[in-house]
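Quick one: structure tokens for this chain, please?
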Amino acid sequence: MQYRCGLTSTIAQTLGVICAKKGEKMGTVKLTQFIYPLRNREKTSVELPDDVCEMAKGQILSCEMMPKDYSKVIFYSRKKEWEEEYEACEIAVNGPGDNSPKNALERLIRRVNQMQDAPQDANEAAESIA
């Protein structure tokens, strides 16, 4: 499937077209991408500002295109010491703008970094992102 940027639907390619702001120091963040329909996993990396990369070191990150709707990307993150059930997520629109994949991933990393402990229930998880 082709998109505006002329790339195929993999998240690595979608995020790969994102450019750094002039003079901004960039680092690399590693994610696991879940690929449908075969449910394969693929390691990928994304360049983000250095301060965000530093925050991401304590997190486990993954992503996937929404099945049957490749216009959206879902990112998941949790601190390394948290159980998988406590993952936070962010949904991005596969394109430019405030809710682009790069911006959504950066917001998610910053939000999880600010959380002190894993949420204990769904209400607490909802309050942590409000």
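The two ends are 35 Å apart (CA to CA).
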